[in-house]
Design brief:
Layout lengths: L7 E3 L3 H12 L2 E7 L5 E8 L2 E6 L8 H4 L5 E5 L3 H10 L3 E8 L4 E7 L5 E7 L14
Parallel strand pairs: 1-4, 5-8
Antiparallel strand pairs: 2-3, 3-4, 6-7, 7-8
């Protein structure tokens, strides 16, 4: 059986984030489970054929924005990072790192969503041997 890894992000307001991630980052909603109280407690989005899951763990949870810092980053490869960057800015994403070329051959920018999760969006633009990255390859 093939193994698959995908992020499961926690949000204070999953419903609002489904709408925002669709609008600002171009993700496609696949699934939304709403409880009797109207809270979206589980959802899934498509990101270029890959999945992102998200949920609301309850009133005690605090998002990175409201709890300080962020526990993880999510890396997403897109076909056209320039167009994606413009869409994210227009959609209200808080840009943490401007669009730039990296030493390892990606063109990338970083952005926080409204609840403070950090997203990195990249397009691979050139192959660079690891010995030219300035870091040790594993």
């Amino acid at each position: 059986m093939a193994q698959t890894v995908f992020p499961y992000l926690l949000y204070e307001d999953v419903g609002a984030m489904l709408d925002w991630l669709s609008s600002a980052f171009g993700f496609t909603e696949k699934l939304r489970f709403t409880g009797d109280d109207g809270t979206v407690n589980h959802a899934e989005m498509d990101v270029g054929g890959a999945s992102i899951m998200m949920g609301d763990p309850g009133d005690e949870y605090r998002s990175p924005k409201n709890g300080g810092g962020w526990p993880a980053q999510v890396q997403v490869y897109v076909d056209d990072v320039e167009a994606h960057y413009e869409r994210a800015k227009a959609g209200g994403a808080q840009i943490r790192q401007e669009l730039a070329d990296t030493p390892y051959g990606d063109r990338r920018y970083d952005a926080h969503d409204p609840e403070g999760h950090l997203w990195m969006f990249s397009t691979h633009v050139r192959d660079v041997p690891p010995e030219d990255w300035g870091a040790t390859a594993a």
